[in-house]
Amino acid sequence: MSDRLAEPLATTLGARAANPLATMGLTTVDDLLRHYPRRYGEPGTMTDMDRLALGEHVTVMAQVARATVRQMRSRGGALLQVTVTDGRHELALTFFAKRPGALRPHEDKLRPGRQGLFTGVVTEYRGSRQLTHPDYVLVGVDADDADDAVTEASRPIPIYPATAAVPTWRLQRAVRTVLDPLTEDDVPDPLPAEVRDRLRLPTRLAALRAVHVPDDAAHWQAGRRRLRTEEAFVLQTALAQRRARAAEQEATARPARPDGLLADFDAALPFTLTAGQRDVGAEIADELARPRPMQRLLQGEVGSGKTVVALRAMLQVVDAGGQAALLAPTEVLAAQHARTLRAMLGPLAEQGMLGGADRATTVALLTGSLGAAARKEALLDAASGRAGIVVGTHALLGDQVQFADLGLVVVDEQHRFGVEQRDALRAKGRVAPHVLVMTATPIPRTVAMTVFGDLETSTLREVPAGRSGITSHVVPAANERWMERVWAKVREEVDAGRRAYVVCARIHPDDDAPARAAADFDEVPEFLDLDGAATTERAPLRAVLEVADELRAQPRLAGVDVGVLHGQMTPADKDAAMARFASGEVPVLVSTTVVEVGVDVPEATVMVVLDADRFGISQLHQLRGRVGRGADPGLCLLVSTAQPGTPAAARVEALAATTDGFELAGLDLELRSEGDVLGAAQSGRSSSLRLLRVVQDADLIAEARAEATAVVDADPGLVGHPELAAAIAAQLDADQEEYLERA
């Protein structure tokens, strides 16, 4: 970053103007120039007044229709009432003063026929919407001279993300103050000149002037395209460097053996692998046999059999003398994985035990809640190499955890882990281990290319034979007859020897807590309140403990044991709750979303999601995937309070209409903000992507990826591209790089 861009705004603008900007996180010239307009007001185009919501802080473009001043008898003083219009609807602007003369400056400016931008909070008085003491700027009036007025009145008006303390036109003036004096030397350009020329793009300074001071719509559109390309190019260059660094590392080749554990496992499989499982397995086997570390993302539809593919890869590594570590995000899921792997391996997981196979290994489980004796045994099994497969949570990352020869790291649900955590486990190998990243959230190609661009991608779309499928229905929460039928259906499934999940968004009932009180949510990183619950009256979210009590008292479920599972329980209690549910001792489990991923109870056939309209599509799809995993068909009942026609209703209706996770993932991305897509909302940091949209900008991203790969191939260290190297360092420092690992 140049000295001019790094200059504090307090120096450039003065402390008085800079202090309000600092509250918005804008402290340097570069910060301000990257605060891009949200939209543009076209001269003569008015804001639709009919869409203004009460309580909303708005900036509207409108024309003054009339203005009157009158004395106030009840409270004294004077009142200026200005009516502005969009041509169809009207909005009142109200100004108060102790004497009429104090209102003269407003009265002189706000003459009928004049257009301007008006900002304030929308309130209501006697049935009409109004802005009280709004801030405003008039088009063509608030310029220094007549020529400026004509020019400014003909230009698109940049409208910035603003606050009550810093309205959009103050941001515009501040931007002009810092932007106008800059030269090309002041603004380093991370896009190499040859890339700019090939893609016919302007310099960075020209693009900044186009988006902040556009001559017309085509001008700012060209500027935004250039800046979107820059964001994509910087990100793709960072990913290309990661790929190049991985390709330079040495790994131990782990070729398949014709007479090892993998062959014995395949021979004993009670089912036939899908074509997708065979093809992806061959890809992985080939990469494991190379002396370069595999870096592969395995994504698949819910229930597509990713675990079998991962286990076969782990067995190939064990056959070659190495060990595999499976990193899971929660203790519930880690324990589930360990049980599943042992069950799938059978005697092959009983090394040295009575009844164990002649060729066998050990599956060790290492979590933070293990007792001292069990923990010591697991650590010894890992360090000695006796355990060919070690399953664990973050406990695997501890300094005391050592491996004899770590050959493969399998990371389940990568979006739950940061890059530092993955690298900490990878560093436990004597040389770089192979890495297989698994995700059960289907990822459209553009997102995989952007977020997992340093990994090769394999996709499983088929569901193994024997699965009976899932039917989904939306249930109106207010319809008592429908709700009665929900619990009757749960009873029917229980009486048939099956199981039912009931999922709630929070643990404790608290009618006074706002719907967005994140402290009450339990391991819900994707939880989205997409429809403004904070500003509208909505029923409080249902909670595990209150729902469990209600179901125990529900006549339809008389005599049925109801269990609970949530993140505030001890690990031992979680395991016990899952075990009782899996065995059928407690056939109804009221849970938070700790059951969202990976939990596998084939007898579970019903999933009831309360407040389903308050969850994101991907999370609902994951929850639905917990049922219908055996021979019996699954049923997902989405209990919703959403009004027809709302985005929330559209989400649950879309989920009920299809089980295609890739179709739903695309819809989910259209409904969610870009920060959510890249994980920035969950990480608590703003994404460095300001303008790039990974869904809409697919072609641009592919183009940037090709250009970035060519640059890195020719100059891996970016020695000849210092501006690009500096941009990567500034935007993707050690902390922010975590978002590259999320989806």
UniProtKB/TrEMBL annotation:
<dbReference type="Pfam" id="PF00270">
    <property type="entry name" value="DEAD"/>
</dbReference>
<keyword id="KW-0238">DNA-binding</keyword>
<dbReference type="GO" id="GO:0016787">
    <property type="term" value="F:hydrolase activity"/>
</dbReference>
<dbReference type="InterPro" id="IPR045562">
    <property type="entry name" value="RecG_dom3_C"/>
</dbReference>
<keyword id="KW-0547">Nucleotide-binding</keyword>
<dbReference type="InterPro" id="IPR001650">
    <property type="entry name" value="Helicase_C-like"/>
</dbReference>
<keyword id="KW-0347">Helicase</keyword>
<feature type="domain" description="Helicase ATP-binding">
    <location>
        <begin position="287"/>
        <end position="460"/>
    </location>
</feature>
<dbReference type="InterPro" id="IPR047112">
    <property type="entry name" value="RecG/Mfd"/>
</dbReference>
<feature type="domain" description="Helicase C-terminal">
    <location>
        <begin position="520"/>
        <end position="675"/>
    </location>
</feature>
<keyword id="KW-0234">DNA repair</keyword>
<keyword id="KW-0378">Hydrolase</keyword>
<dbReference type="InterPro" id="IPR014001">
    <property type="entry name" value="Helicase_ATP-bd"/>
</dbReference>
<dbReference type="InterPro" id="IPR012340">
    <property type="entry name" value="NA-bd_OB-fold"/>
</dbReference>
<dbReference type="InterPro" id="IPR027417">
    <property type="entry name" value="P-loop_NTPase"/>
</dbReference>
<dbReference type="InterPro" id="IPR011545">
    <property type="entry name" value="DEAD/DEAH_box_helicase_dom"/>
</dbReference>
<dbReference type="Pfam" id="PF00271">
    <property type="entry name" value="Helicase_C"/>
</dbReference>
<dbReference type="InterPro" id="IPR033454">
    <property type="entry name" value="RecG_wedge"/>
</dbReference>
<dbReference type="GO" id="GO:0005524">
    <property type="term" value="F:ATP binding"/>
</dbReference>
<dbReference type="GO" id="GO:0006281">
    <property type="term" value="P:DNA repair"/>
</dbReference>
<dbReference type="Pfam" id="PF19833">
    <property type="entry name" value="RecG_dom3_C"/>
</dbReference>
<keyword id="KW-0067">ATP-binding</keyword>
<dbReference type="GO" id="GO:0003678">
    <property type="term" value="F:DNA helicase activity"/>
</dbReference>
<dbReference type="GO" id="GO:0003677">
    <property type="term" value="F:DNA binding"/>
</dbReference>
<keyword id="KW-0227">DNA damage</keyword>
<dbReference type="Pfam" id="PF17191">
    <property type="entry name" value="RecG_wedge"/>
</dbReference>
<protein>
    <recommendedName>
        <fullName>Probable DNA 3'-5' helicase RecG</fullName>
    </recommendedName>
</protein>
